[in-house]
Amino acid sequence: MQILRKTKLESLKLLESMSKEEILDKIEEKSLVGRGGAGFPTAKKWRMAIGQQDDIYLVVNADEGEPGTFKDKFILENNPETFIEGVMIASKVLDVEKTYIYLRGEYEYLREELEQKIRELNERTQKKFDITVVRGAGAYVCGEETAILSSIMGKRGNSMKKPPYPTQEGLWEKPTVVNNVETLTCVPQLLLYDDWDPDLRLFSLSGDVTNPGLFEVPLGVKVSTLIDLTRPENKLKAMSLGNFGGIMPIEKDYRITPELISGEQCFHGTYSLIWIDETNNIVDICKNISEFYTYESCGKCTPCREGTKKILDILSKIKNGEGNKKDINELKELAEHVNNTSLCGLGNTAGKHVITAIEHFREDFVEKVER
Predict the structure, then answer these.
(1) Which of 8, 107, 142, 239 is most buried, by CB atoms within 10 Å?
(2) Considering 228, 260, 277, which residue would you say is the last residue of a domain?
(3) How does residue 370 score in pLDDT terms, banded at 50, 70 and 90?
(4) Are residues 26 and 161 in the same domain?
(5) pTM for this prediction
């Protein structure tokens, strides 16, 4: 796998032969974009922070709370050295005051080895990098960049209104760059290897299949290829893109690209695909996802706090055979309202599974209300 290629500190030597601007140009030339879900150009984000002409903080998002996503854990377990090199390169280019790695609470077992690797690499470099691992408390909302910043500063893990964006005003009102584990692991690799491929992605594949796992394949891969890799027992009817990405029907010739997924009113996110076979009713799947959102809402804004509960109530009503066709339309309208009026990314996607499910699988909802 490309993501497992070891750089063995060779990339850090480039800091002596390449200027910061040359490194930024290389990252831009190789078209590295964020791998945490948004796909924002990495070099552009770094330049935005540098342009503030102030002390800069670097925060690594290792929270990975999206259901069905396990790529960052794989990197931290199998290639932590290259990841840390990426952190050090970013720290040097950005001239950061301090770096925080925000580690998912469930990944606590990785913390000791990660901190040991940081100490070892620091001993082998001329510049000592101030890198602290911060353990998350298990809140899904802290996958959102401003909620991470609140948590690191000792506040409740709530999202903050944007603008200002973190690159303008983040930790302690200083410019802050937030990058994903996979993004920073790619930095030393693209600097060292001419054949580094920006189109390769880590797909977390799970659900109703016999061979779930992490697979590195290029963008544009056919759905049929991913199905063959995971070997389902029954015929598949749908795929859920994590929880927040929406639910799409299975079309074997469909190619996975951000543009095509967006065309189905879905989000590609971190390329987590949860397969759903024909033994499932989509209403049941939506109810499970809504239970997750209701539990994980931080409660700060009314649309998400109250809306997720109302969505769950209507889904429960439909699931139990107590609903009618009007409930289906009300459910879709409510989900759209929650998405459009909530404060942060959690609320902005809390109804996506419902909207896309009704769009593509309305018959499953009708079946529940007409039985």
Answers:
(1) 142
(2) 277
(3) confident
(4) yes
(5) 0.93
